[in-house]
Write a structure and sequence with these properties.
The structure is a homodimer.
Chain A (H helix, E strand, L loop, with lengths): L1 E8 L3 H9 L2 H14 L3 E5 L7 H13 L6 E4 L3 H10 L4 E6 L3 H6 L1 H7 L2 E5 L11 H17 L7 E4 L10 H19 L4 E5 L10 H18 L3 E4 L4 H14 L15
Parallel strand pairs in A: 1-2, 1-8, 2-3, 3-4, 4-5, 5-6, 6-7, 7-8
């Protein structure tokens, strides 16, 4: 399971202040801390309300690339900012993301072909509806896959996100159980080995103590891993989360166990 | 998921010394600590080498019952000690346990009918072989279920244990992944709603630091819970394990999430 840091978020005060002053140093320090903690890729979330969306994304990509060669995930709903970010990326990059919403299908999805980038597809319906019911979730995932292949793209570039929702939402626990089931069944459902991703931080958003958030993440991450999740988007500065991701890898990998594996690097 | 304390083990120095002196006080204190920590049942393991197996089991049952009315699980391979313990139990009790080994089928299994007790059935072959391969594990579970029903017992009294093995065993990780798969598929496989149990402490036995053991248990417990495990046998004095068991219940239960659920009692 690949660990993608979601720490580079415009909602993070350090990022917000650094962006305002176009000062790369605080961002570089944060990126270094995340690399040291075990990040294997970075999500760059330039936010929906950025005043200069293209310049902001380019500044963030350039700043992160000045510190690390790890793969990047560009996270914006603005097609122009996405394109500018993709053009700036020197290494492997993933578009985050599209869904069945018409503007995403029309303006974000085509960028995957144009830039030869992997792309995250959210299991969200045409009317921005997150399906709760297992059957609706499955049919939405199939429709997403069909819309994707219809655009002429290869399944190996697609990463499906079944959308973890806050546990505190009405029907949140039921939805998140269905997320596990979807991840487990997706290869059979689509008849193609499509990768999956999930945003762990969503689970505890909107409330709870830090300790409560941590234990919630600690409970759900191994469930996601055992269901077969390929990538997780998470706050890599929660130390328990990284240690757990490592132990999940040890528990689920092929080959011989060694106690030393628990202490080695998260790779 | 019901939490069964496996702390009352003759290998535990406090228990060993107390047994030697027939002093119930240290055992009572340990039982109270386990109840306070969140134990919902107690496994009483009188060990294979007890000199007075019947007296030892009766003493342990009486001592535990003098402190708590929680359900008991009697854990001995000695049929006479098991029968004496069962006769002493005032409340709900489970026999731990039988397998396809001939002496267990002949001398332990019949006690379930005689005492109207639930019984744990280990997925272990006739020649004491723990199956590693998924197919062999499934066929052994089916054979176990058939031997059980042939004895005229009701499926609702049976609790199947797919036998978690130490991660450090050769093929340990592969076996333990197959355990998850077996738990998940067991209802379909048997065509009956049989309960399942797993011994979490086995996972880390035979090596590793306490921290390594804790993180290994923390990774595997939510995987077991998501697979549908009904009961877990564990050291309830590992505080993280109990907090995780609680969060698993919150993540997997029906109904509405509340942050307060994470802080309430493990029941």
């Amino acid at each position: 399971m690949l660990i993608i840091a979601d720490n580079l978020n415009i909602m993070h005060p350090v990022i917000a202040r650094a962006l305002e002053k176009r000062d790369p140093e605080p961002i570089r320090r944060l990126v270094k801390r995340c690399v040291d903690a075990g990040a294997q890729a970075f999500d760059i979330n330039s936010g929906p309300l950025s005043r200069q969306p293209r310049e902001t994304m380019v500044f963030l990509v350039e700043t992160v690339q000045s510190v690390t060669h790890l793969p990047l995930v560009l996270d914006t709903a603005n097609p122009a900012a996405m394109a500018a970010g993709l053009a700036t990326c020197a290494g492997p990059v993933t578009i985050n993301g599209f869904s069945l919403e018409p503007d995403k299908l029309e303006r974000i999805l085509p960028l995957a072909g144009q830039y030869g980038a992997d792309i995250i597809g959210y299991v969200i319906g045409a009317h921005s509806r997150v399906p709760i019911d297992e059957h609706e979730m499955m049919s939405t995932a199939v429709a997403l896959f069909e819309a994707y292949t219809k655009a002429g793209l290869a399944p190996r570039q697609l990463i499906i996100d079944p959308v973890v929702v806050p546990a505190a939402w009405p029907d949140g626990p039921r939805h998140n159980r269905n997320v596990l089931s979807l991840i487990h069944q997706l290869p059979d459902l689509l008849g193609a080995p499509v990768r999956t991703i999930a945003g762990l931080s969503n689970l505890s958003s909107g409330g709870g103590s830090l300790q409560g958030k941590m234990v919630l993440e600690a409970g759900y991450l191994p469930m996601l891993a055992a269901a077969g999740l390929d990538m997780v988007m998470t706050n890599v500065l929660h130390p328990n989360t990284l240690a757990l991701a490592k132990v999940c890898r040890v528990l689920l990998k092929e080959g011989i166990f060694s106690w030393a594996d628990l202490d080695s690097s998260p790779n």
